[in-house]
Amino acid sequence: MVVIDWIRRWLGYPETAGGLLTSGGSAASLDAFVAAREAAGYPDRATVYMSDQSHSAQVRAARIIGDRADCIRKVSCDGRYRLDVEALACAVAADRASGFTPIAVCANAGAGSTGAIDPLSNSG
């Protein structure tokens, strides 16, 4: 908690901000999916989205929390290997119309194989 508080102050975040230290990216992905599933109320068809450049640990983490293979979406990328935000929006809309419940979008801030950074500022 002390280290998280140091980082919070260093970044200039408010006192209400918090965080979690993990052993690595795989554990962090698992923690994030658990939090997303719980925040969504444990839906039956919890669906996660990631680019086709995302690390395989994200798929494993989704499977560990109980997501079925048909609820894990690999979204196409643009010519610079970044998540195609329009393709993502279409996938989410189609899934909602089909009764799936989107719980998380995994964006890359430096994909392992290409170094691509997804257009995070355009996603919201």
Q: What is the top-level CATH class? A: Alpha Beta
Helix proportion: 25-40%
Oligomer state of the chains in this structure:
single chain
CATH architecture descriptor name: 3-Layer(aba) Sandwich
Question: What structural category arises from helix and sheet content?
Answer: alpha/beta
Count of individual helical segments:
4
Low-confidence stretches: none
Give the radius of gyration. 15 Å
Polypeptide structure, described:
There is one protein chain. This protein is globular. Helix 2 packs across helix 3 (56-64). A three-stranded parallel beta sheet has the order 2-1-3, with helices on both faces. The protein has a single domain, classed as 3-Layer(aba) Sandwich (Aspartate Aminotransferase, domain 2), CATH 3.40.640.10. The chain is of the alpha/beta class and 124 residues long. It is built from four helices and three strands; from the N terminus they run ααβαβαβ. The two termini are 30 Å apart. Helix 3 links the parallel strand 1 and strand 2.
Overview features:
124 residues, alpha/beta, Aspartate Aminotransferase, domain 2, three-stranded parallel β-sheet, 4 helices
Short synopsis of the structure:
This protein has four helices and three strands, in the order H-H-E-H-E-H-E. The protein has helices at residues 2-11, 25-39, 56-64, 85-97; strands at 46-51, 72-75, 101-106.
